[in-house]
Amino acid sequence: MIREQQVLDRIERMRRRKPVVREERITLAHGAGGKATQTLIEAVFLEAFRNPMLAPLDDGALVRLGDGPVAFTTDSYVVSPLFFPGGDIGDLAVNGTVNDLAMCGARPVHLSAGFILEEGFPVADLRRITASMAAAAAEAQVTIVTGDTKVVQRGKADGCYVTTAGVGVVEQPVTLSASGARPGDAVIVSGPIGAHGAAIMLARDDFGIEAAITSDTAPLHAIVADLIKALPRHVRTLRDATRGGVATVLNEVARASEVAVVLQEDQVPVHPEVTGVCELLGLDPLYVACEGRFVAVVDGEHAGEALDTLRAHPLGAEAAIVGTVAADPPGLVLLRTAFGGTRVVDVLVGDPLPRIC
Amino acid sequence: MCLGIPGELVEFVQEHEDLAVVDVSGVRRRVNVGLLADEGLRPGDWVLVHVGFALSKISEREAQAVFDYLQGLGQPYADELDALRGSDIG
Amino acid sequence: MRFVDEYRDAGRARALAGRIAESCRPGRRYTFMEVCGGHTHTIYKHGLEDHLPSEVNLVHGPGCPVCVIPMGRVDDAIHIARRPDVIMTSFGDMMRVPGGSGSFLDAKAAGADIRMVYSPLDALKIARANPDRRVVFMAIGFETTAPSTAMTVLRAAAEDLGNFSVFCNHVMIIPAIKAILDSPDLRLDGFIGPGHVSAVIGCRPYEFIARDYRKPLVVAGFEPLDILTSVHMLLGQLAEGRCEVENQYTRVVPWDGNRIALSAMGQVMRLRPHFEWRGLGFIAHSALAMADDYAAFDAERVFDLPGLRVADPKSCQCGEVLKGVLKPWECKVFGTACTPETPIGTCMVSSEGACAAYYNFGRFSREQISAAAREPREASRP
């Protein structure tokens, strides 16, 4: 067994080396949220832009402007199809930006919206998108205060892309960071996972699968504000589980905090239809994207209180404590399976691909 | 190799004799049942789905076989199972 | 889910694990090969080895279609896919498999029209919708998947669909098992047999393994309790000095297989005299090509192919891993030069490949992981 451990240690050292982009071209994997995305961000973007505010690579940055800290974030939306059960690219963009600010512990205030439109795109569709953005902004109590429009030649874009920026104010001083998790903390998800990713897969209709699944896209600022208000000193980390799903977010936390995260498979809430889609396509719901769910790491002593607070909000009715933080082995996410075994939950290389084998 | 998922046959597709709708945990897909033409499939039957084809009809009776086998392991198995269930760590 | 959840019950697993431990003779080591990559995936996904005593050692076999596909065949497929008039269709599993010069994903990034499908019938649908393009289905898989390809070709023939063809890479499990049995450096005590292949071919084709090689084989289902039960059945055979083919997966596998599936394969496909398996070399009568009557649907005849053989990288020991001679971590490049991001060998590509499964799910010592997983159990209760 000693030899095996030596090999494993060597691999662990390899994994911690500075990331290098080996590919000569961008592939879809670079946008999937997994290892390839991480590598691209660290080896290209962080390398070029490095500064202390960017370095933590959190969902947004806290910048000092005038008196207090301001949360600042940006995001782009390229979803296909543009309209899907439960939402469209418009409310997705507003909610996604609001959520990134909420994860910094901020109250979202203002958004920008940039549109890249393909020549020939129907104005009626654009009106539909902007209407749903307006409704989502009203619900999240933010205003879209500036914008931009570009039109590109037919074939140079896929209908409509939306880019946003958002600013929010930090009213309750909290320290939230992916590096804040400590042994003994509890890991909570705010609701059933994977519905957005599953809804999009079905809406694309590549696989001929039908199910009553709607995207979970929703603004999370209010439920997060409730949580922070209830436990201002006991919330360590907040992350919305978008690309790459809960598994990817928890890997980021485990790595940044140098802790192990131990999940209990049977405690992770997944709706049966999402389970069905995942079984059919050979996917793991832990890696499927959510757009209205977040992961909270909270002080283990206050986990019950945190759960009660979340469940009191309609968006958190099915929140669950799904795991705990342990000291060893640092940087790893483990899953205690429903079958009574244990396995590693690693970061994916690229998009989770449907498999038949 | 070969991901196979159990699904319940819901109905046959009218215009295609070889196609049926199968339900997997509330998720539906059209599946080709041509490989099971011998089986006299009916709605309510369970089939194993692989790459859009029903590969095998699942036998309800044989599905019990594993549990019968486990029961046949005798008293130590039954005792341990009870003990584990009672201790609520299962 | 019915027929799934009841076979993932931790209580039954623990009670059975106790009986498995009792069945082992102290000091004796039992080595079983799960032939099928699907079993490998189940074993890692559910952490099944935590229920096995240290006497029982599972080695992972060659039953992973994308793991055994030689690089030259991937290159041939990409050669076809690069043609502007072609739409290549493939299961998601194939997308990351490296050929001599890149994978489907790389070819797609460079402009080839390669689309993922769930079923070969979806490829047929794409062919109907694109009459001015030539649609090729990259057919991979063992006897489980080959009948679906055959049925799809029969359908295409009935519709007289002229723009559809199949690049046939179907392989057969029995010759691969035989190659492993004939490999001199292997010591196995028995086989966990591939359940879904057996739904097609039945259990009789394995009888020579028990008769001629004196190894027991239990055809097993794919849920973790199925595999644990099969291990118990194998130990039972060894304890009683029996050596038989047994069927644990009776709910799905008929002893004689699926007659319609076999006849569709027989009609549309023919045996290749030999076929190269990655890591295992050339194996006689181990793969299927399109039959002459269906030449019009055979991408190998419809297109000119380079057909070049590409040698496996020297550093890659996939062959030894596929034969169960080496554990994944014993390979020289495992986890360093060869990782899921930069796979050298195919075992690192598919999530059911032994190396990828070990890298992703099992990379850490069991003691360490179990210790970490045990302590916080109570705290996690709401």
Structure description:
The complex is a heterotrimer of chains A (357), B (90) and C (382). Chain A folds into three domains: 1-50, no CATH class; 59-171, 2-Layer Sandwich (60s Ribosomal Protein L30, Chain: A); 178-344, Phosphoribosyl-aminoimidazole Synthetase, Chain A, domain 2 (Alpha-Beta Complex), CATH 3.90.650. In chain A, 32% of the residues lie in helices and 25% in strands. The mean pLDDT of chain A is 92. Chain A starts with a helix and ends in a 13-residue tail after the last strand. Chain A has helices at 2-15, 35-49, 89-103, 123-140, 195-204, 221-230, 245-257, 272-281, 303-311, and strands at 61-65, 68-77, 83-84, 87-88, 107-118, 143-152, 160-169, 186-189, 209-211, 235-240, 260-264, 294-298, 320-326, 333-336, 342-344. Helices cover 26% and strands 33% of the residues of chain B. In chain B, 42% of the residues are buried. In chain B, a hairpin with a 2-residue loop joins strand 4 and strand 5. Chain B folds into two domains: 5-58, SH3 type barrels (Roll); 61-90, no CATH class. Chain C is of the alpha/beta class and 382 residues long. Chain C folds into three domains: 5-63 and 182-247, Rossmann fold; 71-173 and 257-302, 3-Layer(aba) Sandwich (Rossmann fold), CATH 3.40.50; 318-360, no CATH class. Chain C is built from 15 helices and 13 strands. In chain C, a hairpin with a 3-residue loop joins strand 11 (274-277) and strand 12. The longest helix of chain C is centred in the middle third of the chain and has 16 residues, at 224-239. The interface between A and C is large, with 68 and 74 residues. Chain C: Belongs to the HypD family.
Structural class of chain C: alpha/beta
Which chains have the largest interface?
A-C, 68 and 74 residues
CATH topology of the largest domain in chain A: Phosphoribosyl-aminoimidazole Synthetase, Chain A, domain 2
Instruction: Give the N-to-C terminal Cα separation of chain A.
Output: 31 Å
How much of the polypeptide of chain C forms β-strand, as a percent range?
15-25%
* DSSP helix fraction of chain A: 25-40%
Rounded mean pLDDT of chain C is 90
Q: Major sheet of chain C, described briefly?
A: 5 strands, parallel
Per CATH, the class of the largest domain in chain A reads Alpha Beta
Instruction: Round the Cα radius of gyration of chain A to an integer and report it.
Output: 20 Å
The general outline of chain A is globular
Residue-averaged pLDDT of chain A: 92
* Helix and strand pattern of chain C: HEHEHEHEHEHEHEHHEHEHEEEEHHHH
Structural class of chain A: alpha+beta
* Major sheet size, sense and barrel closure of chain A: 7 strands, mixed
CATH architecture term of the largest domain in chain C: 3-Layer(aba) Sandwich
| Major beta sheet, strand line-up of chain A | 10-12-8-13-11-14-15
Question: How many separate domains of chain A?
Answer: 3
